[in-house]
Amino acid sequence: MNNHSRGLSFSDIDSDWKLALDPENIFWGTIPKDNGRFVLSDKLIGIYKKERKHLDGELFNFRFNEPLNCVYIDPTDRCNANCPYCYIPSKIKKFGTQMTTEELDTVLKKIGEHFKNIKKKPVIVFHAAEPLLVKKILFGAIKKYHKKFLFGIQTNALLLEKEDVEFIKKYRIGIGISLDADMKEINNRSRRTTQGKGNYEKAVRALDWFKGYEGLNVICTVTKYNVDRLSMLVKFLHKKKVPLVLLNPVRLTQARAIRLKPDDMVYAKNLIKAVDMAMELSRSSKRQIVIGNFANVILAIISPSARRMMCDISPCGGGRTFLTVTANGDMVPCGEFIGLKEFSGGNIFKASIKDAMNSTPFKKIRSRIVEKIDECDGCDFRHICGSPCPAEMYARGNLYGKAEFCEFYKEIIRHAFKLIAEDKVKYILREDAMKQLEYEYKL
Fold first, then answer.
1. If we measure between CA atoms, which residue out of 99, 173, 106, 110 comes closest to residue 136?
2. Does the model's pTM come out above 0.90?
3. Among the ranges given (70-79, 240-249, 303-312), the one the predictor scored with the smallest mean pLDDT
4. What's the gap between Cα 45 and its chain centre?
């Protein structure tokens, strides 16, 4: 199906199922095959005609009118790790600046001012290099502003202490621990410290301290080093009572990461094995472990506007539903742009968030939509995948290039449709998410 026609496109999911899909609004139906043939239900066509206009509007609003709801703050440029795929240039990590207590307070006040007329609490995530290098400043700010914002911290856990865990639980802070493998030698190959060691022991110690804390997640960056251990990592984390893991592809924003990219089909095969492992563990133990990036693909299909990971929608969430404030105050669409000075939307100490959102660099990122990308514009899965990531593609020489992991995304999306057809969604999404979903149409 090309982008100049409208209607249902038909394709094979596998030997048992066929897919009817309108790529423009993600209306879909899975149809069982019968000896290689299938029958298109009149009822499906009727529902499609009834829902099409509504779904068109819903997806358009999600793509272009969803408001800013999250700010990533990088309180320090520096890091005590030396991961080979890091998107932050080495010079910045070694010699970069750090916020003072007063500077962080100013940033949070300006964010609060931007959201003053919005009832829902905005999300603040302390991210970037290693935020716990300025732990005292961070915790002081969280104490002061915890009634105004929902806070999260992403950390390699090298500086995390037991009393920090108690603080995080007390203030209900979301916490992401970086861990790439269930085996020390594999993890430490990519999650290296500046001393040449690794974060494995301290990350695992942190998981034991949190003991299934509902705000805990683990972020795994998938490379050719660990791609064949994903299902084993899921099994390991389930034993540690981790409720959520992200098995994210390595981003190729920095050239040094290119040699670590796993083959698309190898990655897809192993992610599917990990999903199967997570479903089986969740089913047999009555205690869920969710693979967040795959769950987001499921949501992109069954409830497109309910997804919260905004990398796989076009335009992406960078400079739209979230932005990043760097340690020196620069506002960039996303952390992946830290090393790309031309994408600063202004400095928060001199300008407002509104100024940044209206800036030329932010508008440029929001203008990257799948309709402008060759091959993506005619792909049935274009509004499920979103062809990420603009920073990665810009660094690779073409902002409007298709996603580096294109074939991986296609394979994973087909598998998501298969699991939906087999009625296995309840084993993939978090239980609280399932309870919030209601049918708009059903065959």
1. 99
2. yes
3. 303-312
4. 34
